[in-house]
Amino acid sequence: MRVLTMVSPKGGAGKTTMAMAFAGEIAHRGQNVCFVDADPNKPLSLWAAQGNKPENIHVITDEDKDGDTIYDSIDAAKERADWVIIDTEGSPNVRVTRTITEAGLCVIPIRASYLDSAQAARAVKLIKDASRQNRRKIPFVIAFTQVKAAIVTKTYKDIGQQIREQVLPVLPVELFEREPLVKMFAFGTTLYGLADSEVGGLPKALENASALTDALIEAFTEGAKTLEATAA
Ligand SMILES: Nc1ncnc2c1ncn2[C@@H]1O[C@H](COP(=O)(O)OP(=O)(O)OP(=O)(O)O)[C@@H](O)[C@H]1O
Ligand SMILES: [Mg+2]
């Protein structure tokens, strides 16, 4: 069982949406996913409550925002899933730090704006501090999201360049801004539960989510190798 934690100290970066794009694809491929909803706004618990989710995606709601129950929630999730995905809130605190220390890979979604690039740096610092505290290198990857499909802007290219210059790992696949990714939450389902007639651009969104999933699995595997190398 593998644990992914979505991290970003900035609200609205796109954590929950990217987590769902990935989970939907993994579930479609026949594996079990268990979310740990560690956001006081409980977006995933509300999503599940609509009653339309696939059977192999579970949601555990972590109730204690101070982090007292988070390890138990993660353990319960590990028991029932091939993939555990922890969704955190948009501001750092003890609970967020604990979810980072439990991760096999931390995913930092960022939008292509200069402001978010600074926020990504804060997320990286959070992960590095947690790594140091735990004497274990916690792998992470930065993932661009809400990228406008029509125009790949100069800002987007500049930020990619800035991040690569800092030698930070960037996922080679970005998640584009598309309507079906919003509709998943309106209907309480994944991309695969949407109908072509209900929403435009579904085939492209599915293709993008599949490529993103492959890239995240690859990043997880690479991270695991780093961990083994450090332990050896
Ligand atoms: N790839 C995308 N395509 C279209 N809309 C998106 C995409 N990613 C995010 N959004 C929209 O942007 C908003 C913020 O996204 P999301 O809730 O995933 O961010 P978050 O990082 O989880 O926020 P929070 O910190 O509040 O939990 C939502 O309205 C969501 O529908
Ligand atoms: Mg969220």
- What share of the residues does DSSP label as strand, in percent? 15-25%
Report the count of strand segments: 6
Structural class: alpha/beta
CATH homology group:
P-loop containing nucleotide triphosphate hydrolases
The SSE string, one letter per element, is EHEHEHEHEHEHHH
Please tell me the overall pLDDT: 92
What gap, in angstroms, lies between the N and C termini? 21 Å
Could you tell me which ligands this complex binds, including any ions or cofactors? adenosine-5'-triphosphate, magnesium ion
Instruction: Briefly note the CATH topology name.
Output: Rossmann fold
Descriptive account of the structure:
By secondary structure, this protein is of the alpha/beta class. It has a single domain, classed as P-loop containing nucleotide triphosphate hydrolases (Rossmann fold, 3-Layer(aba) Sandwich), CATH 3.40.50.300. The protein is 48% helix and 15% strand. The protein contains eight helices and six strands; from the N terminus they run βαβαβαβαβαβααα. The protein has a six-stranded parallel sheet with strand order 3-2-4-1-5-6, with helices on both faces. The longest helix has 30 residues, at 202-231. It starts with a strand and ends with a helix. The model has no long low-confidence stretch (mean pLDDT 92). Adenosine-5'-triphosphate (ATP) is lined by residues 8, 11-17, 39, 89-90, 145-146, 175, 177-178, 181-182.
